[in-house]
């Protein structure tokens, strides 16, 4: 095997990585459950779950077995011919998806899935404008990047897809209106934007759909109770299709199979990806028979419906159900929230926002003024967490929200270890 130094040299020479300019590459060589091991043998609790794509835990034996079994039979047929694991996974997705969503278009990744959802919505409505929220993340392809907010993603690439109209997101912690007295002003604003045909209108009279994340993943925002229901009502009132991006919330992470299930909301189009292929590349748009009737998705992506990815995805969903990992996510998210709120250093905790194991912890310098913890301090804490054996990241509207989202098989002791480690590091920070 190459030495670590040689690996870093070759990595820098050949691989272009999104995070390439941030720190030195870390070579993870093994994963088991919520844990990963690096090339030096150091173990970490992976609170980023491989970017949230290992919901049943790293290298779950049932998923590994499904991959091995399928790989020995057939790996990549063309979707002109279909294959057994693709049919089985599509049926399972239809069973677990909300309401009457049952038609599945397979893709190979998240951004591609939101782009497929966009094509479907434009084709069905005949309208080319779409409402997306502030602080949203829907991917970085040329269509999805337009839905994603944040100038940093777009500034070097010229005009991106036109037709995206921005509406407020449900960030109660820093909102001038107080929940519940606000009566979900932010959700209603979607309706006011759609309704506005006057001189102040921010659109061209061509809005056909709305895309939201039920919990903003990269954004680290959990909307309040009733928000999703209100968004659905507004879409119905104004004749807009509701696209729900469950690429990160999907498959149990929020303590329900889909985040929509918390409020029993049925979208018109559901986009999901990170766990569709049981940690292998895959994605799926799930929609109704009515919407799909005249839609021609085209003959690609070539690798969509890959037999091994579909077998792995089916094994992942079955594992979540058999091992009650969705319920565990709900319980562990609650324990994490309570633990963080009760730390001896909780003066730095502005807000803990969780549904299941989806959410974030926002750190502030002063609870009254809500002054965000500065980026350099956030980075120092991230570095100390890694030294103490916890891998995680920070994002959110002010860059100070720690996105602790471990795999759903995490246990109480591991949750307590996360809390105690944060507390220990914040005590050092205090000094
Ligand atoms: C909610 C959401 N949508 C879309 C994407 C894009 O997925 P991918 O990175 O697979 O293109 C992500 C990725 O983090 C996401 O969290």
Notes on the structure:
The chain has 431 residues and is of the alpha/beta class. Helices cover 35% and strands 16% of the residues. The chain has a 7-stranded mixed β-sheet, sandwiched between helices. α6 links the parallel β5 (129-133) and β6 (164-167). The protein contains 13 helices and 16 strands. It has 2 domains: 4-56 and 324-430, Aspartate Aminotransferase, domain 1 (Alpha-Beta Complex), CATH 3.90.1150.10; 61-322, Aspartate Aminotransferase, domain 2, CATH 3.40.640.10. The mean pLDDT is 95. The structure holds pyridoxal-5'-phosphate. The site of pyridoxal-5'-phosphate has 14 residues, from α5.
Morphology: globular
Name the helicity range: 25-40%
CATH architecture of the largest domain: 3-Layer(aba) Sandwich
The total domain count is 2
Mean pLDDT: 95
- Distance linking N and C termini: 43 Å
Largest sheet: 7 strands, mixed
Total strands: the figure is 16
- As a whole number of angstroms, the C-alpha radius of gyration is 22 Å
Unreliable segments of 5+ consecutive residues: none
Give the full name of the CATH homologous superfamily of the largest domain: Type I PLP-dependent aspartate aminotransferase-like (Major domain)
């Amino acid at each position: 095997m190459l030495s670590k130094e040689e690996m870093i040299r070759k990595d820098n020479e050949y691989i272009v990585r999104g995070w390439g300019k941030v720190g030195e590459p870390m070579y993870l060589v093994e994963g088991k459950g919520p844990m990963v091991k690096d090339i030096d043998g150091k173990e970490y609790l992976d609170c980023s779950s491989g970017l949230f794509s290992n919901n049943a835990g790293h290298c779950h034996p049932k998923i590994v077995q499904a991959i091995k079994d399928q790989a020995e039979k057939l790996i990549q047929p063309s979707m002109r011919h279909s294959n057994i694991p693709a049919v089985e996974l599509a049926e399972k997705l239809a069973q677990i998806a909300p309401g009457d969503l049952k038609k599945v278009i397979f893709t190979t990744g998240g951004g591609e899935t939101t782009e497929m959802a966009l094509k479907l919505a434009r084709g069905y409505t005949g309208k080319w404008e779409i409402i997306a929220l502030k602080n949203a993340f829907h991917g970085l392809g040329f269509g999805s990047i337009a839905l994603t907010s944040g100038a940093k993603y777009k500034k070097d690439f010229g005009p991106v897809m036109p037709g995206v109209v921005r509406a407020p997101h449900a960030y109660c912690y820093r909102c001038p209106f107080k929940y519940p007295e606000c009566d979900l002003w932010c959700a209603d604003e979607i309706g006011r934007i759609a309704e506005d045909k006057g001189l102040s209108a921010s659109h061209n009279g061509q809005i056909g759909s709305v895309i939201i994340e039920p919990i903003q993943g990269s954004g680290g925002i959990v909307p309040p109770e009733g928000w999703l229901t209100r968004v659905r009502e507004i879409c119905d009132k104004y004749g807009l299709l509701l696209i729900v991006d469950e690429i990160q919330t999907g498959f149990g992470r929020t303590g329900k199979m889909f985040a929509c299930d918390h409020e029993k909301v049925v979208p018109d189009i559901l986009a999901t990806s990170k766990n569709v292929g049981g940690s292998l590349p895959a994605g799926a748009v799930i929609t109704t028979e009515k919407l799909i009737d005249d839609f021609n998705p085209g003959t690609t992506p070539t690798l969509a419906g890959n037999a091994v990815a579909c077998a792995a995805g089916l094994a992942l969903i079955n594992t979540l159900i058999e091992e009650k990992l969705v319920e565990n996510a709900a319980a562990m998210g609650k324990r994490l929230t309570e633990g963080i709120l009760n730390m001896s250093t909780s003066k730095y905790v502005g807000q803990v926002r969780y549904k299941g194991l989806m959410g974030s912890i926002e750190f502030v310098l002063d609870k009254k003024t809500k002054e965000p913890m500065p980026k350099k301090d956030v980075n120092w804490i991230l570095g100390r967490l890694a030294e103490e054996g916890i891998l995680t990241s920070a994002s959110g509207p002010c860059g100070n929200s720690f996105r602790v989202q471990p795999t759903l098989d995490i246990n109480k002791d591991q949750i307590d270890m996360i809390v105690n480690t944060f507390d220990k590091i914040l005590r050092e920070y205090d000094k």
